[in-house]
């Protein structure tokens, strides 16, 4: 795996050459000229332009029908530990410039093509490293990447998971331990002075969405003295942030009892007792809770909508892509005039124009008017390529509702 076979190459013309040079992260196998001449797709290949100059290395993902593109312009560059060390050092320097690298913090070290390592995500939680790869085809590459991480970062532990296809947010995910010892089951991290508990060895998600850091920061500006409804609260990072920022009351709603207990844990880590009357925990289907709150004529100053891509509630069919406007429509009547709706969507499938169309449709249906006041997006440790807007997965809107 350390050498890229120079005889196995794919010669490309425009528009693919200009797209790859511009940061395009993937190359569909179906678009390749004479693809059958280099089958089977079982090892890295060299990507060259019409003049035979190397423009990248292609990592095959036959199950996904594509090559991952690692930009490279030297025909003799081996795909070895030094290859990954160079890219990791560049990525780490950016995070150091951002002030994110410390013993208790959490940050993304590698964000796929944004750090010229398409198909790989590397997150760091208080010195413990979690690698996500998007296909099971790259185990040898992951081993090289882990070796490079040890050299560059000196982490406490390293594990790797393969992100399953589709929208899977619950259940355990198998992982490989790539260090002498696995990470502890529970790890505490600090972000902007707030403490959170994360679990690296459980499911797909760890308990803290690092891509929501800017949303948590923006939320602090709108909390003082406010009544807040946090739906799909998950482990309560937004609820805890709001209380610490001076919210008068926060209602946290989720159908999963386990994450509500996790929310209480995060509150306790920050000196908020279980019986603190400023916090209310509700185990319920969010749609049912919104309807019940409306019947009771309840009003909130801030409503947070950060739903999963599909429901996990038995007996209910709901999909983010098609039903988001219906969710927003149930939430808008609960906002007092001048209240704030925080609408967050994190999905590859939901483009900004579609989300905004759904928001407008819901407001029109409810006879309300939306004023956009902030759009906190991905934090700077989640760089993306301009040529690949799909990489900007988070869409978040702070909307005043009149």
UniProtKB/TrEMBL annotation:
Pfam family, one: Methyltrans_SAM
Residues annotated as domain S-adenosylmethionine-dependent methyltransferase: 178-384
Superkingdom classification of source: Bacteria
Entry EC number(s): 2.1.1.191
Keywords: Methyltransferase, S-adenosyl-L-methionine, Transferase
Principal EC category: transferase
GO molecular function per UniProt: methyltransferase activity
Keyword Nucleotide-binding: no
Record-level GO BP terms: methylation
Protein name stated in the entry: Ribosomal RNA large subunit methyltransferase I
Species this protein is from: Kolteria novifilia
């Amino acid at each position: 795996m350390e050498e890229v076979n120079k005889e196995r190459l794919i010669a490309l013309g425009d528009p693919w050459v200009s797209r790859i040079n511009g940061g395009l992260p993937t190359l569909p196998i179906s678009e390749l000229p004479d693809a059958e001449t280099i089958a089977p797709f079982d090892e890295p290949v060299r990507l060259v332009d019409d003049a035979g100059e190397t423009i990248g290395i292609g990592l095959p993902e036959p199950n996904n029908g594509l090559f991952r593109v690692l930009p490279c312009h030297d025909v003799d560059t081996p795909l070895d530990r030094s290859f990954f060390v160079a890219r990791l050092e560049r990525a780490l320097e950016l995070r150091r410039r951002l002030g994110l690298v410390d013993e208790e913090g959490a940050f993304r070290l590698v964000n796929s093509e944004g750090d010229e390592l398409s198909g790989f995500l590397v997150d760091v939680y208080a010195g413990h490293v979690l690698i996500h790869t998007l296909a099971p085809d790259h185990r040898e590459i992951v081993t090289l990447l882990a070796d490079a991480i040890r050299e560059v970062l000196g982490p406490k532990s390293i594990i790797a998971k393969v992100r399953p296809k589709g929208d899977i947010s619950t259940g355990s995910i198998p992982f490989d331990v790539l260090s002498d010892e696995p990470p502890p089951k529970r790890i505490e991290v600090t972000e902007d002075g707030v403490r959170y508990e994360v679990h690296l060895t459980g499911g797909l998600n760890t308990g803290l969405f690092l891509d929501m850091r800017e949303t948590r920061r923006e939320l602090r500006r709108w909390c003082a003295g406010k009544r807040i409804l946090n739906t799909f609260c998950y482990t309560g990072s937004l609820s805890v942030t709001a209380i610490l920022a001076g919210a008068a009351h926060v209602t946290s709603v989720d159908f999963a009892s386990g994450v509500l207990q996790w929310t209480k844990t995060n509150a306790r880590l920050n000196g908020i007792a279980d019986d603190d009357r400023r916090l209310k925990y509700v185990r319920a289907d969010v749609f049912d809770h919104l309807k019940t709150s409306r019947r009771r004529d309840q009003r909130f100053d801030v409503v947070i909508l950060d739903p999963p891509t599909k429901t996990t509630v038995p007996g209910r069919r709901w999909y983010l892509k098609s039903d988001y406007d219906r969710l927003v429509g149930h939430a808008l009547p609960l906002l007092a005039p001048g209240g704030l709706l925080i609408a967050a969507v994190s999905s590859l499938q939901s483009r900004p124009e579609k989300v905004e169309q759904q928001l407008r449709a819901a407001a029109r249906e409810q006879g309300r008017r939306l004023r956009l006041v902030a759009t906190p997006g991905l934090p700077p440790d989640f760089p993306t390529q301009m040529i690949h807007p799909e990489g900007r997965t988070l869409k978040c809107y702070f909307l005043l509702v009149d």
